[in-house]
Amino acid sequence: MKALTNGRTLLWAALAAAVLASCAPSRTPAFEPALSQSRQYFQAGEYQKAIDVNASSFNKHPRERAVREEYIRTLEGIEKQARAAMSAENYASAERLSSILLDNYAKYKGLAKSLSFSAAVLDRRIRLCRAALEGRRIAEYLQAGEYDKALGTARALSPSELKDPGRAAAFGKTMEDIKRRADLAAESKDYIKSGRAYAALARRHDDASKLGLKLPFSREALAEGLKVCRSELTRRGLELYRKGELSQAIALWEGLLQFDPDNAEIRKAVETAREQQKKLQKGCL
Fold first, then answer.
1. What is the pLDDT of residues 203-220, one digit of tens each?
2. Are both 134 and 161 inside the same structural domain?
3. Domain check: are 46 and 107 in the same one?
4. Are residues 81 and 152 both part of a single domain?
5. How far apart are CA 274 and CA 222, in angstroms?
6. Residue 193, SS3?
7. Distance (Å, whole) CA 145 – CA 213
């Protein structure tokens, strides 16, 4: 009888312990705050911080499934946004997001097999984005007639990028585009625009040679184009000057000086025309 009583006592004690254990508050996993913080950073668009939090958490708890899944979810989320930006031709955003992933690739390299993208994919996308952005800038400069800036944008590349045949070809394409514009301007007798274009090409012709490009026009052809522009603007300016149309003559000669700033003869002609204007203005007072 005593043994039975002792057995019942032990049973009740075990049940009571189980009940107390079930009522006790469960401990939050040590990594849970990091997961929550990662989600907050991601939602706020602070992707670098989200990656940093995940990297730290993964290093501390490499075997925790929840930690691994959150890390992958964060990386894939950034990649998804980069692809969407690329599809929408938002190249600046696509480049920024892809660069964040590529710059941090060493941190999550161990998860590479579980990811839908690779370092090579990111690098290729970044190059495409930069080429597209460069193309847009060049197009804007060409449209505005800022030929030196267009060529400067095409040429301002790092040594590694200059070895890229695609980038070298882009520079050559820009040169050819400007040459076409120069020829068209000359045909329409817009010798200021034409001269500025020929002069810009002449200044960068050596760069094309250094890149190994074979342009469909020579330095001599550019020099001849400049000669025609210079001659026509000089002649027209003199005709206007002799007719007493001094303002128009000065405008033409100043246009010539835009692409031939060291032309002492034309600079002197401008000074003379301005002096003549002053004398005429005094005579009218």
1. 999 888 888 888 999 999
2. no
3. yes
4. no
5. 31
6. helix
7. 23
CA 87 from chain centre, in angstroms, equals 16
Q: Which helix (H) or strand (E) holds 279?
A: helix 264-284
Q: Residue 273 domain-assigned? A: yes
Nearest 5°: CA angle at 83, between 43 and 85?
75
Are residues 161 and 113 part of one domain?
Answer: no
Q: What is the pTM of this model?
A: 0.74
Phi-psi sector, 212: left (phi>0), alpha (psi -120 to 50), beta: left
Asked if 183 and 92 sit in the same domain, the reply is no
Query: Taking the mean position of all CA atoms in its chain, how far away is CA 130?
Result: 5
Please say whether the beta carbons of 175 and 201 come within 8 A. Answer: yes
Q: Which amino acid is at 113?
A: K
CB 78 within 8 A of CB 97: yes
Q: Is residue 67 part of a domain?
A: yes
Q: pLDDT in tens for each of the 285 residues of the chain?
A: 554 455 555 555 554 454 444 444 445 567 688 888 999 999 999 999 999 999 999 999 999 999 999 999 999 999 999 999 999 999 999 999 999 999 999 999 999 999 999 999 999 999 999 989 989 999 999 999 999 999 887 766 566 656 677 778 888 999 999 999 999 999 999 999 999 999 999 999 988 888 888 899 999 999 999 999 999 999 999 999 999 999 999 999 999 999 999 999 999 999 999 999 888 887 664
Domain span at residue 130 reads: 31-143
132 and 165 together in one domain: no
Say whether 201 sits in a helix, a strand or coil. helix
**How many domains, in total, are found in the chain?**
2
Choose the final residue of a domain: 128, 143, 158.
143
